[in-house]
Give the backbone structure.
Amino acid sequence: MLGPLMHQWKERTRPVRLERRFEFESYEATRNFLDELGKLCESLKRYPDISFGKTYVNLTLASGNEGETDEISNDDKKLASKIDQICQ
Amino acid sequence: MLGPLMHQWKERTRPVRLERRFEFESYEATRNFLDELGKLCESLKRYPDISFGKTYVNLTLASGNEGETDEISNDDKKLASKIDQICQ
């Protein structure tokens, strides 16, 4: 079960993963978010699948332990909430 | 018909688009490519759909004139070859 703050993330199955879409006012805002996200990923050595265009970013957090699980790990939830903080 | 240099790009239909996958040795190399790509996109005001992970980038160049065409535009081919130059 996701915590209260995480309502914008969607839990998916097969494989278990967390997904969220971010939308921005401008390409510059999208780039700034991606730059911050890049630093966070590098610091945590976690590399989610990221797709983006001019004013959107879609994130997919596949469970850290490569699919042998059917539950969202605490690691994934922590990563998701750290990503949320970039936008606050 | 794509020019000789563009053999790594794939032409797709419905909608007409160009796709290419780039692979890199490290996350740092992936980030460097994305930074250069970001500058190019901003300078040309063209924003392809980009998806990436630790060591790959997938690019989709949807035709510049929003789908009313069934041919890859010269604009798209020019953009594709400029993107190729980032890697040379």
The radius of gyration of chain B is 13 Å. Chain B touches chain A through 14 residues (CB under 8 Å). The longest helix of chain B spans residues 27-44. DSSP finds two helices and four strands in chain B.
